[in-house]
Amino acid sequence: MIIKEQQINEQIRDKEIRLIGEEGEQLGIMSAKDAQNLASSKNLDLVKISPNSNPPVCKIMDYGKYKYEIAKKEKESKKNKKSYL
Fold first, then answer.
1. Which tens digits make up the pLDDT trace of 54-69?
2. Torsion angle of the four alpha carbons 78, 66, 6, 19, in this order, in degrees rounded to the nearest 10
3. Are 28 and 16 in contact (CB under 8 A)?
């Protein structure tokens, strides 16, 4: 199982980020600190999803749920693969 570790919450140290809301809506460019405050006010996490863009793109989401969904998809994918001998 390969889950790429992403920067979340206080690990994000960029001055400015492009923020996407939990419903996928564009919230614009703002400081990482403001985005973290917004995410924490909603009891969600700020996750950097595209670190190489300028400014980096972050999304407000439930990171635990996101990791669970990714792991579930990978497990399902492995289950559906057939091994050829």
1. 999 999 999 999 889 8
2. 140
3. no
Domain range annotation of the chain: 9-72
Class of domain 9-72: alpha beta
Q: What is the DSSP string of 24-74?
A: S-EEEEEEHHHHHHHHHHTT-EEEEEETTSSSPEEEEE-HHHHHHHHHHHH
How far is Cα 59 from Cα 45, in angstroms, rounded to an integer?
8
For residue 57, what is the enclosing H or E element? strand 57-61
Bridge partners for 60 per DSSP: 46
Asked if residue 29 lies in contact with residue 39, where contact means CB atoms within 8 angstroms, the answer is no
Is the CB of residue 35 less than 8 Å from the CB of residue 46? yes
| Model pTM above 0.85 | no
